[in-house]
Design brief:
By secondary structure, the chain is an all-alpha fold. Helix content is 72%, strand content 0%.
């Protein structure tokens, strides 16, 4: 079953999300914050590894929220999308509250946390007021999601640096892959909604190449365990399905559903890999 969707000319906006910080294989990523700040923060009891995990999840949710709204506009698995949207908004608020309660740790991280909170708030407010008949509004929502995601990613980068363990960058690489599962699905669905489709598909192509580069980086990681080795073939197989889905043309309902469900399944496998790397990095 297929239905033609009218093209829409939205306001001018920048589609490209964040510059993935872990494209270089496993060098510790620096944020421009003074090294002494992190040396001092290492003496505190701040759970930076837990904050990386929460921040990563929060960044994923920014794209998932937009993806659910795109599904609602397109009429793709709408009841499921609405449940997931409500859950994602609630989870995002909970995570941000937890990050604030934990505190910034290093004083230089505080502005990054404040910026992430502000940009996330703007996204959640726009999502709550979004109406499915507003195609241009969906494009604006995607811009706010990208801005919030970029702010959160900068915060996560700072948390990774604060861990003070060079191989911890493997967590950021895995996190970038998790985000890309949702980011790719978002821009694929936006293209099918007729929202600047040429630019949206360019973003999909860029993200697809970034995913493959990051996946190769993971294969070269010195951090390994039986658990990570077992997860890798599952990820490669799931990526094959997602990559194929992202090349499907038209607005066939089955293709649109595949984009939503395959991105979620790929995220699930990568979430398990993230947990495996996190465990492998812990002493003992």
């Amino acid at each position: 079953m297929s239905s033609a969707l009218p093209a829409c000319t939205p306001p001018t906006f920048t589609l490209s999300r964040r510059r993935l910080t872990s494209m270089a294989p496993f060098a510790l990523v620096f944020t421009g914050l003074p090294a002494a700040v992190f040396a001092q923060s290492a003496k505190t009891a701040v759970d930076y590894r837990g904050m990386v995990s929460r921040g990563t999840r929060l960044s994923i949710l920014t794209d998932r929220i937009t993806r659910c709204q795109a599904q609602r506009l397109l009429g793709v698995l709408t009841p499921r999308a609405e449940r997931m949207l409500a859950d994602s908004v609630a989870e995002a608020r909970t995570i941000m509250a937890a990050l604030k309660q934990q505190g910034a740790g290093a004083a230089a991280i505080a502005p990054l946390l404040a910026s992430a909170e502000q940009d996330l708030g703007a996204l959640l407010s726009a999502s709550e007021s979004f109406r499915t008949e507003d195609r241009a509004g969906l494009g604006k929502l995607a811009v706010l999601a990208d801005k919030a995601g970029a702010s959160i990613d900068r915060l996560v980068t700072a948390y990774v640096q604060a861990i003070g363990q060079p191989t911890a960058s493997v967590l950021q690489t895995t996190a970038d892959l998790q985000r890309l599962t949702q980011h790719l699905a978002v821009h694929y669905l936006l293209s099918r909604a007729g929202i600047d489709p040429t630019e949206q598909l360019k973003e999909v192509d860029t993200g697809r190449r970034a995913f493959e580069t990051l996946l190769q980086n993971l294969k070269q990681s010195p951090v390994r365990s039986a658990r990570t080795d077992a997860a890798m073939p599952l990820i490669e197989g799931q990526w094959t399905f997602l990559r194929a889905t992202l090349t499907q043309a038209g607005t066939d309902v089955a293709a649109l559903q595949n984009a939503a469900t395959t991105s979620e399944r790929t995220l699930e496998v990568l979430t398990e890999l993230y947990a495996a790397y996190d465990a492998a990095l812990r002493p003992g």
